[in-house]
Amino acid sequence: MPVFRDPGVLPWLALRSRPRPASAPDAKAEAMEEIRLTRVVIQAGRQAIVTEAMDLTPAEMETFWPLYREYRLEAAKVGDRVVALIERYAANYDTMTEEAANKLLSDFVKIERARADLKAKFLPRFRRCSPPRRSCASTRSRTRWISRSSTRWPIKSRW
Fold first, then answer.
1. Mean predicted confidence (pLDDT) in 20-36
2. Residue 103: is its pLDDT beyond 70?
3. Which of 18, 51, 108, 120 lies 20 to 30 angstroms, CA to CA, from 138?
4. Close Cβ partners of 35 (under 8 Å, ≥ 6 residues apart)
């Protein structure tokens, strides 16, 4: 079972993977379950990376982790939009018109914009509860982890 380490890569993979025929509802259900489980694995890995990189004091932990959980809940909603985009892509792959493809691409950009807006919304709050150097270290660690992992992502049909 492939493990995608960053939810932001899922649309990229979906747009470059040839889906299975729509006549296989079991395959679709299986793929959706795989996406759900992959998101659980991603979250666990993300939490471990942030924990290691941040090296927070007990006092900082009391303010950081509730805020982080709030941020991740909102980020999961953005991730849900990514999954919905992938579902639409897969469902319409064989009959996709140029108009539908343009709509998918526009929606993808909107999702990426929402992801950036969410980060901008939470940044001032994170700055108040942990030193900026630690936040930078956390971001750098996650980026390295994603880079290392991306070389192992299999790209193959999921639908």
1. 72
2. yes
3. 108
4. 10, 83, 86
Nearest CA to 6 out of 149, 159, 156, 109 is that of 149
Q: At what angle do helices 58-92 and 98-129 cross, to 10 degrees?
A: 180
**CA 43 to chain CA centroid, nearest Å:** 9
User: Using CA atoms, how far apart are residues 45 and 133, in angstroms rounded to an integer?
Assistant: 21
**Which two structure tokens, joined as six digits, stand for 141?**
């660690």
- DSSP-derived secondary structure letter, 8: G
Q: Which two tokens stand for residue 106?
A: 């526009």
Report whether pLDDT(22) > 80. Answer: no
User: Is the distance from CB of 86 to CB of 10 less than 8 angstroms?
Assistant: yes
Domain 7-17+25-150 part of CATH 1.10.3470: no
User: Average pLDDT of the chain?
Assistant: 76
